[in-house]
Design a protein that fits this description.
Length: 239
Amino acid sequence: MEQLTINQKKILKSLDTLPPTDIIYNYTPEQKNYLQELKKQFELIQTFFKAFFLGEPIPAKTLQGESKEFYLAKFYYFLSFYILLQCGWEYLSKTSEFHFENPSECFIEVLKNHSKAQVHICQLGRFDIRPRHKNEMRRLANKIKKGEASDIQTSSYNKYINALVNLGFSKFASLEIFCVKTCAKNAGKDHWLEAKLEDYYENFKKVQEINQRTDRNRKGYAWENGRIRNSRKNGGTYS
């Protein structure tokens, strides 16, 4: 059995503290349940990473069906980003915007940002979660990427993104985006980095596909001042 390194122990310890529940005071019963579910998710990801670090099989036998597919996809997405950081560290560490000592330190910050983004959802005064609309935005993003979107479609997508930015979500994704863009910029002269970048893209795509498939059967709802408001049958949400 392999021994955990200091940095691996730090990663596992950070996962044990996610999500950061201390940023919400006097949370509602709905927020409490939501945070407990998030805690279970990160505990599972932590278990997967510990097994990987120790060279053991990923312990996913207790999971079944869509749940197993989702958590394994999420783990391999995080893992592919972790490996990408290691392969691209030569380039990342040279950028003036970067202040991390090693790839593990940067990876821990990205994990924290993922959890903070999920907690941020239930902290907002109002945040509508409309699965069908979200799926439509994913389709528009693909069209824009392929150069197939009309001006109206592009405008609609930009409006959606700007709304997320105004709600404060962009700050949680900025570090990961910076790392990926820096690696992509240098991948042309580094075939090993290029291969790991493709792995990251594939795993990211897999998570998005699973989310999109799951959202087709999910009803919309909204977070409003710490409370969940379910969708009306004829559209909209309860106030």
